[in-house]
Amino acid sequence: MSNKQARVPQPVESERIPLKARKVSFSWEGTPLHWVPGDPFTTHTINVLHLLLPAGERWFVHVYKQVLPYIRDERLREDVIGFIGQEAMHSQAHDEVLPHLREQGLDPTPYTAQVDWLFEKLLGDRTLPPGRARRWWLMERVALIAAIEHYTAFLGDWVLNAEELDRRGADPTMLDLLRWHGAEEVEHRSVAFELFMHVDGGYRRRARTWATAFTALVFLWQRGVRFFMENDPTLLDGKATFKDFHVRGRHGLLPSTGDMLRSIPRYLSRDYHPSQEGSTEQAIAYLASSPAAVAADAAVTVADDKRSAA
């Protein structure tokens, strides 16, 4: 029996927009170590993004450049190229937070070295003969990215609506980084899944790689939070527990446990399509007001005007 899905999930056509990379920049001089005031646990739980994303999104880009020759649909190819540009910028933006953490006494190198090994060695290219084996490994990684992107879109939608962070006085520069990134994750949330469906689409592979991705994300995230809490120079006995996460989720400072659990059957549904989650309209509205994105667009306009005048 075929491993293909009997029904191909259909996108919401109105959610499709051209993707572009926004060359944003952020200044971290005024951002405190605990950028959610008085709440190191929430701060460090979200800070794990800065540890995982630079290597992870470089890996996305590397894998997608390899899969481009397999794409037979020009519109999807354009989406994938736009996705590559956005992911490369995300990697750079989060990477630039790490020196700021070091200046505040939190050196993430021991943890990021492990993350680099995971993406570059364990999930990197393998010496395989051309043909079936090499394609199998490429398709496995394409499916893993689709599963991971389900959660980056989930987190992007969450942070766009996380009003409690504003009420608690979270640092506006860090919020802008997170919401700019989150908005672009919502904006391109369908690309990874549609690419997987285009080049493979096997349901068993989708379910298997979801289990791998979810397990790895939970493992890496809790290790990252523990690493930050134990090495925070301002904490005498920094600890991280699931109860801390659950309580802050109930208060709106982090994604709720229930919302995360409900995201699982959605991805595993045979009718799943990412465009049915989140709001492109909301994402675009934030990108139109984000200080960093607005500055990036203005810089492009100035550069274009100079070229036109030359």
Task: Characterize the structure shown.
The protein has 310 residues and is an all-alpha fold. It has 13 helices and no strands. The protein has helices spanning 40-67, 74-95, 98-103, 109-122, 132-160, 163-167, 172-187, 191-199, 203-231, 242-250, 257-268, 280-289, 291-309. It is globular. The termini are far apart. The model is unreliable at 1-6 (pLDDT under 50).
Summarize the SSE layout with pairings.
Blueprint: H1 40-67, H2 74-95, H3 98-103, H4 109-122, H5 132-160, H6 163-167, H7 172-187, H8 191-199, H9 203-231, H10 242-250, H11 257-268, H12 280-289, H13 291-309
Helix pairs in contact: 1-2, 1-4, 1-5, 1-9, 2-8, 5-7, 5-8, 5-9, 7-12
CA-CA gap between termini: 63 Å
Give the fraction of residues assigned to helices: 55-70%
Overall pLDDT score: 93
Largest sheet report: none
Total count of helical runs of at least 4 residues: 13
Shape assignment: globular
Low-confidence stretches: 1-6
Total beta strands: 0
Q: In percent, how much strand structure appears in the residues?
A: under 5%
Over the alpha carbons, how many angstroms does the gyration radius reach? 20 Å
Strand pairing plus helix content: what structural class? Answer: mainly alpha
SSE ordering: HHHHHHHHHHHHH
